[in-house]
């Protein structure tokens, strides 16, 4: 059952974000809608750095010495957001004893596909070159960042580069064709995203590229031999079926995938973890998974 906080925040998101995204056409307005300022977890320090020629920032707990590193790729439809906007998530992981690097990969439409993939892959290479061993390295992302995390894995696998130990995805956007049934079915229920905006946003990123290109839409790629993957998604999300189909394809390829479907939560809800108990629980389970512990539950009962 969803928390009272979730039931209270969803109407606000409809007004502050969904209504704005549904009506806006200018890139500047869309970016403003994505970049709502949110509270950042306490006890975390953020330090600017450049990894693999890509600028970004480290998130570290002020207490303790983490043994695991996480490459976190922010969402924002490939059009907006940054490492800074996603501090609630990166800081949340840091609070839980994981060192996090979040790159500011190039954004569309100024830098269309495959610029984001190139930057994310360069960052992944850079982390390993700096001494992050794959067995103590994880990759994660939300929304577009979830698709980007999988694109990095597919690229690294193709080039024979070592893969990380764990993958965590929040509301991943892995099908830029927008062919999942939930795109239409959940368009009214989703408190943040309008279903028919999916392909319009994708077109700005793709700039004419095929939406079934695997490094743009990893759902259409070879998903065999991936690291164990934990996928979180909300039951009412437009992107619910991206996650459901991704889980099924990984399993069909004999991989390990754990799908967690949460009731009523908004898109990429761990970014609201200071407010939502479901956000804190998703981060707890994900941090445990990254530290090689299977989450308490994967049945989606909240």
Walkthrough of the structure:
- This protein has about 300 residues and is α/β, with parallel strands linked by helices.
- It has a single domain, classed as 3-Layer(aba) Sandwich (Rossmann fold), CATH 3.40.50.
- The chain is built from nine helices and eight strands.
- The chain has helices at about 5-25, 25-35, 85-95, 115-130, 145-160, 180-185, 200-205, 240-250, 275-290; strands at about 45-50, 55-60, 70-75, 100-105, 135-140, 165-170, 230-235, 255-260.
- It has an eight-stranded mixed β-sheet with strand order 1-2-4-3-5-6-7-8, sandwiched between helices.
- Helix 1 packs antiparallel against helix 2 and helix 4 packs across helix 5.
- The longest helix has 20 residues, at about 5-25.
- The chain starts with a helix and ends in a 12-residue tail after the last helix.
What is the H-and-E element order?
HHEEEHEHEHEHHEHEH
For this structure, what is the CATH class? Alpha Beta
- The strand order across the widest sheet is 1-2-4-3-5-6-7-8
CATH topology, by name, is Rossmann fold
CA-based gyration radius: 17 Å
Any idea what the CATH superfamily is called?
A: Alpha/Beta hydrolase fold, catalytic domain
Largest sheet: 8 strands, mixed
Mass-distribution shape: globular
The structure class reads: alpha/beta
Question: In terms of topology, how is this protein built?
Answer:
Layout: H1 4-23, H2 27-34, E1 44-51, E2 54-61, E3 69-73, H3 87-95, E4 99-103, H4 115-129, E5 137-142, H5 144-158, E6 166-170, H6 182-185, H7 198-206, E7 229-234, H8 240-252, E8 257-262, H9 277-290
Parallel strand pairs: 3-4, 3-5, 5-6, 6-7, 7-8
Antiparallel strand pairs: 1-2, 2-4
Helix pairs in contact: 1-2, 4-5
